[in-house]
TrEMBL record:
Gene Ontology MF term list: endonuclease activity
PANTHER family: BSL5627 PROTEIN, UPF0213 PROTEIN YHBQ
Name of the protein: Putative endonuclease
Domain of life: Bacteria
Keyword Ribonucleoprotein: no
Family: Belongs to the UPF0213 family.
Matching InterPro entries: GIY-YIG_endonuc, GIY-YIG_endonuc_sf, UPF0213_domain
Domain GIY-YIG: 1-70
C-alpha cells in the first residue's frame, strides 16, 4: 500500500484483504498507515497458506525500496488503487 503521492510504501499480511484495506482507508487502524496516510492498494499477492504468505511478506519487507517499486511497476504500472478490483 502507499499514500496518495506514492512516496510511502507499506507491506503487510492479512487473511481478509478487502476488510484490512477498508480499515486503512478509513483510518480505523492506528499506527504507521494512519500516521502516513497509507490508503491506496497498489500491489497484492494471494496465498492459500498463511505460512507462505508470512514468508513472502518478510521477503518483500527485507528487499530494497527499488525492488518494491519494480514489483509494483510490473504488477500495476499506473499505481492505480486496486481496492475495488480485489475479490
Amino acid at each position: 500500500m502507499t499514500n496518495p503521492a506514492n512516496t510511502v510504501l507499506y507491506t503487510g499480511v492479512t487473511s481478509d484483504l478487502k476488510k484490512r484495506v477498508y480499515e486503512h482507508k478509513n483510518k480505523l487502524a492506528d499506527g504507521f498507515t494512519k500516521k502516513y496516510n497509507v490508503v491506496k492498494l497498489v500491489y497484492y499477492e494471494v496465498y492459500e497458506n498463511i505460512t507462505d504468505a508470512i514468508m513472502r511478506e518478510k521477503q518483500i519487507k527485507g528487499g530494497s525500496r527499488r525492488k518494491k517499486i519494480e514489483l509494483i511497476n510490473k504488477f500495476n504500472p499506473q499505481w492505480k488503487d486496486l481496492y475495488d478490483d480485489i475479490l
